[in-house]
């Protein structure tokens, strides 16, 4: 089939490349000429494992191309996927649909009358129905469920597909688009517009709630003398609960969960439904950042003024250069305001971090970040951070003191090497020796 993808950010670029991988002819459309030029040359302006190679292969084969022309895209595609962003409105927390509305209006002006316009962006419930009433062409909704770092796998081999459709024709077209995925046995849920939209927002709300639940339990463990890692392990054996998303730490960030739960709560309120528990989920998440700073102060004797702090991590998660609502950078910036001498290191997100937080210090390597540090904060779970040799690290720092904000480091190993070790969700009795 001939497909177009409107918007070539993280979602759109991934979707375009994966649709080409499935055998379709694809045109990606973006108003940013520089981005279109980069993608046309096989360069991806963000980090996602395997995506640059996939785009380069399919642009070279002629199966995938990029343009700034809606007219060209409208004439080309049978099915048009809208993959633009829905940022958060600061004043209300609601989703800003400016880009979604503009993209639908632009492609609808140029698309054939029998074209199908498919939304993939995460939107408040009711958006698809409103757009369907405003467009001459037929509308469907096909929410995305991508995890950064696993986006290609999640597109080509998803847990499920959801089609929000109002006609058999729309379902038939989407089945044709995803024929190889469905042939591999991927479950398909066909739903009305509202339910399809809610699947995405409800999924993100549930995951955020599960993360904040175990972080709340971490607070209880710290107060009561427990170990949240052991608690999470025991809970995870219950099939009704499961082990995923039960790792306590500094909390979630990124461009999806924080904004999506706030937008969901706002939209529910407009509909007369109280989802106040999502505000508590958000508050617990932000509270864990406060706790990292408290532990930093404790290890530094109550004050951070002049202390050299090495922050390991800038991206909100490993295998990404996405710094949106990054817990690591939020903590780093707040420590800087408290007078600490902060040095940040991340394997992939340094350029983005420098642009957003130009006043922080940055190291070119892990060794440079650690050298002379009075305190180390482990805040993004990159494999190279998990695998640090504490003896080697101890030879570089000024004072061997560390806060494990991701709950994955071996306390016994670090304390045996002479480090003062603290971790979220573990009381003093579970943190190992005090070191020097």
Give an overview of the whole structure.
The structure is a single chain. By secondary structure, this protein is α/β, with parallel strands linked by helices. It folds into 3 domains: about 1-190, NAD(P)-binding Rossmann-like Domain (Rossmann fold), CATH 3.40.50.720; about 200-280, N-(1-d-carboxylethyl)-l-norvaline Dehydrogenase, domain 2 (Orthogonal Bundle); about 285-430, NAD(P)-binding Rossmann-like Domain (Rossmann fold). It has helices at about 10-20, 35-40, 50-60, 70-75, 100-110, 125-135, 150-155, 170-175, 180-185, 195-225, 230-235, 255-270, 275-300, 325-335, 350-355, 365-370, 385, 390-395, 410-415, and strands spanning about 1-5, 25-30, 65, 80, 115-120, 140, 160-165, 190, 310, 340-345, 360, 375-380, 400-405, 420-425. The protein has a 6-stranded parallel sheet with strand order 3-2-1-4-5-6, with helices on both faces. A 6-stranded parallel sheet has the order 11-10-9-12-13-14.
């Amino acid at each position: 089939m001939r497909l177009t993808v409107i918007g070539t950010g993280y979602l759109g670029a991934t979707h375009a490349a994966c649709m080409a991988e499935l055998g379709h002819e694809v045109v990606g459309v973006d108003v940013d000429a520089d981005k279109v030029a980069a993608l046309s040359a096989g360069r991806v302006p963000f980090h996602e494992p395997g995506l640059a190679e996939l785009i380069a292969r399919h642009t070279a084969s002629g199966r995938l191309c990029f343009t700034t022309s809606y007219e060209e895209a409208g004439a080309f595609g049978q099915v048009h996927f809208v993959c633009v962003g829905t940022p958060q409105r600061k004043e209300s927390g609601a989703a800003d649909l400016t880009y979604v509305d503009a993209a639908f209006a632009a492609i609808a002006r140029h698309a054939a009358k029998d074209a199908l316009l498919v939304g993939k962006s995460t939107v408040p419930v009711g958006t698809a129905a409103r757009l369907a009433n405003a467009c001459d062409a037929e509308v469907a909704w096909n929410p995305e469920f991508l995890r950064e770092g696993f986006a290609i796998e999640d597109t080509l081999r998803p847990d499920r597909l959801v089609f929000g459709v109002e006609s058999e024709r729309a379902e038939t077209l989407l089945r044709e688009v995803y024929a190889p995925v469905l042939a591999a046995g991927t479950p398909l849920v066909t739903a009305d517009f509202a339910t399809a939209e809610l699947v995405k927002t409800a999924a993100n709300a549930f995951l955020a709630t599960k993360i904040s639940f175990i972080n709340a339990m971490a607070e209880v463990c710290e107060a009561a003398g427990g170990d949240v890692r052991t608690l999470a392990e025991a809970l995870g054996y219950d099939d009704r609960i499961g082990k995923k998303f039960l790792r306590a730490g500094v909390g979630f960030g990124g461009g999806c969960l924080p904004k999506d739960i706030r937008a969901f709560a706002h939209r529910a309120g407009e509909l007369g439904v109280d989802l106040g528990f999502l505000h508590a989920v958000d508050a617990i998440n932000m509270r864990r950042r406060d706790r990292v700073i408290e532990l930093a102060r404790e290890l530094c004797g109550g004050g951070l003024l002049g202390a050299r702090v090495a922050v390991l991590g800038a991206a909100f998660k490993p295998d990404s250069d996405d710094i949106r609502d990054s817990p690591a950078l939020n903590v780093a910036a707040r420590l800087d305001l408290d007078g600490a001498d902060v040095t940040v290191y991340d394997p992939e997100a340094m350029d983005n971090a420098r642009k957003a937080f130009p006043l922080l210090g940055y190291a070119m390597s892990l060794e440079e970040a650690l050298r002379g540090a009075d305190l180390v904060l482990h805040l993004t779970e990159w494999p190279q951070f998990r695998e640090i040799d504490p003896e080697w690290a101890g030879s570089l720092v000024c004072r061997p003191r560390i806060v494990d904000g991701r709950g994955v480091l071996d306390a016994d190993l670090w304390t045996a090497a002479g480090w003062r070790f603290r971790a979220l969700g573990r009381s003093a009795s579970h943190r190992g020796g005090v070191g020097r």
